[in-house]
Amino acid sequence: MFLAEHAVGLLAAESKNPSPLLPDTAELVVGIFSFLVVLFVLGKILVPRIQVTLAERTNAIEGGIQRAEEAQAQAQQVLEQYRTQLAEARHEAARLREDAREQGAQIIAEMREQAQAEAERLIGHAHSQIDADRQAAFIRLRAEIGELAIELAGRIVGESLEDEARRRGTVDRFLDELDDRARAGT
To answer: pLDDT tens, 35-82?
Structure first.
């Protein structure tokens, strides 16, 4: 109201004193009326819509922030689960490596035992083969020595010792005497 009275006072002063700086009274009344209409429209229609839009945006932003915080918390939880699983996997891998080392050592020990048993078996077989070869060589050597002894004895005696039984007896007796002398000397 004060503005209206002031405007009327200005109009009265204008009619007495026309000044280029003061507007016309009719223009001033229309301007004030238009300003009040715009102010009313803004206050009743646009401001509530702007407030609703701002509230929606605020809720959307706060909801987005909340969703982002929830997603971050969930991601952190998944990361912790991943780290736990990774630690368990590393522990399991270390345990498996240790088991493999133990099994490897056990396999090596078993292979050594098998190799040693095989070597002992081969050595035993070689000893028995050597004993058999020695026995066979001894028998052949005894027969050859017997033949040589008979031939030598036949030359010394001057007779032929053709009789096989006599010859074997003589050879065996001679070789037994040699064995007895060898045993008595050792």
So the answer is: 999 999 888 988 889 899 999 998 888 888 888 899 899 999 999 999
This prediction has a pTM of 0.38
> Rounded to an integer, what distance in angstroms lies between the CA atom of residue 143 and that of residue 136?
11
Query: Which structural domain range is residue 64 located in?
Result: 2-185
CA 164 remoteness from chain centre = 85
Report the domain count for the chain. Answer: 1
The residue length of the chain stands at 186
Amino acid at 32: I
Residue 124 tokens, joined: 């035993």
